[in-house]
Amino acid sequence: MMMARMVLQRLGCLAVLLLALAAPTPSQAAAKIQHLISPGGIEAWFVQDATVPLIAMEYGFGGGASQDPPDKPGVGNMVASLLDEGSGDLDSRTYHERLERRAIELSFSSSRDIFRGSLRMLKDNKDEAFELLRSALGSPHFDHVTSSGSAHK
User: Fold this and answer.
1) CA–CA distance from 75 to each of 1, 65, 91, 139 (Å)?
2) Beta strands in 70-111 (DSSP E)
3) Is position 136 within any domain?
4) Which range among 16-30, 60-74, 91-105 has the greatest average pLDDT?
5) Of 52, 80, 115, 137, which is most buried with the most CB atoms under 10 A?
6) Per-residue confidence (pLDDT) for residue 50, from 0 to 100
7) pLDDT-based confidence at 9, cuts 50/70/90?
8) How far is 37 from 49, CA to CA, in rounded Å?
9) What is the CATH number of the domain that holds 110?
10) What is the DSSP letter of 37?
11) Which segments of 78-148 are extended strands (E)?
């Protein structure tokens, strides 16, 4: 009898602990998800949580390897690899130094049907992060990179 009571007490404590861990924190409860559609038909899911000063976005465009020219497989992967290797008036080294200086994470990838990108930054660095993304997508260099790692136009 005493053994059964101890087991039940421990199970009760365990249940309370699990409920406490599973209960939503204030930041989880406060986060709302909004489904937005731009006038041009671009869909976005917007989640805002004011407790974290971080902006993170993921985006994708129809395309990817299925859009590579038949005689040039891998073009999408090459583009994904080169988009952050300098743009506008910034060479690759300067571009990456600006990303690192502000702790901005920017990446691109290409799968079979989608060309994806990801951008993460602290809220205070959003202007520079969005400018670097705009520059990468709007005026990439696509410099030739030699085996030594140096870029040439």
Assistant:
1) 72, 7, 22, 17
2) 105-110
3) yes
4) 91-105
5) 115
6) 77
7) very low
8) 20
9) 3.30.830.10
10) E
11) 105-110, 114-122, 144-145
Nearest C-alpha neighbor of 142 from the set 93, 68, 91: 91
Q: Is 140 exposed, middle or buried (0-12, 13-18, 19+ CB in 10 A)?
A: middle
61, part of any domain: yes
Which pLDDT score, from 0 to 100, does residue 61 have? Answer: 85
For residue 67, what are its two tokens?
A: 């859009």
- Domain extent for 72: 53-152
CA distance 69 to 3: 73
**pTM of the complete model:** 0.68
> What is the tens place of the pLDDT at every residue in 52-87?
889 999 999 888 889 999 999 999 999 999 999 999
State pLDDT tens for residues 140-153. 988 665 544 444 45
In a domain, 18, yes or no: no
Structural domains in the chain (count): 1
> 57 has which bridge partners?
119
pLDDT of 104 > 70? The answer is yes
With a CB cutoff of 8 Å and minimum separation 6, the contacts of 10 are none
Q: CA torsion 128→130→132→136, rounded to 10°?
A: 180
Classify residue 95: in a domain, yes or no.
yes
